[in-house]
Amino acid sequence: MQEQNTDTQEPIARRTIRSFVVRGGRMTEGQQKNYEVNWAQFGLNLVDGRIDYATVFGRESDVVIEVGFGMGASLVEMAKNAPEKDFIGIEVHPPGVAKLMMLAKEEGINNLRVYCDDAIEVMANCLPEKTASAFQLFFPDPWHKKKHNKRRIVQPLFAEQVASVLKIGGVFHMATDWQPYAEHMMEVMEEQAQYENAAGKGCYHPRPEWRPLTKFEQRGERLGHGVWDLIYSKR
Known about the structure:
alpha/beta; two-stranded antiparallel ribbon; tRNA_(Gua-N-7)_MeTrfase_Trmb
């Protein structure tokens, strides 16, 4: 991955983990058709480099970035419920991207765009610096085994990368249903000088009403599973 040095504009080589592991990326014939039909309207390409939000959406607005939206239903719902905002989803799972675009098309949504690429590369090469109003990371892979904890996306370097695309006062919102991962997120974020915990130091945040309750989350609640939200604002 290449990251730009903002002082010299020379690329800096930086070794990072990938944000997700692709599992079951093969699409059905129907998903492939939806992908191809809708990409021209909703798709953004890593190879096109740095984008301008006003150019992409045709207006100035608050822009929300979400990484790992799964099959896209909750992100589409958020975009539908907040037409005054614009949303960019980043997901490496092609069937999920196809599904999101199909849902957005059915709902007549035009304030949503999507990358089918690794978030680390998109953040480094495509997203404008210090501009987004929110960055969302909901239910990422918790990598349960201790020996795999280093693969968790929420690490100090990732928190810095998120801060680089957020404007001052922008928020980094995370949610997980795995308590050890929630504790890991808290430990990482509380050490970041450029963030402030919106709920108070060391505290989790109640689920905001605007974050849709997913089917996955509803099932977990019925089984007595907890969910932890963390919201940090950029200083």
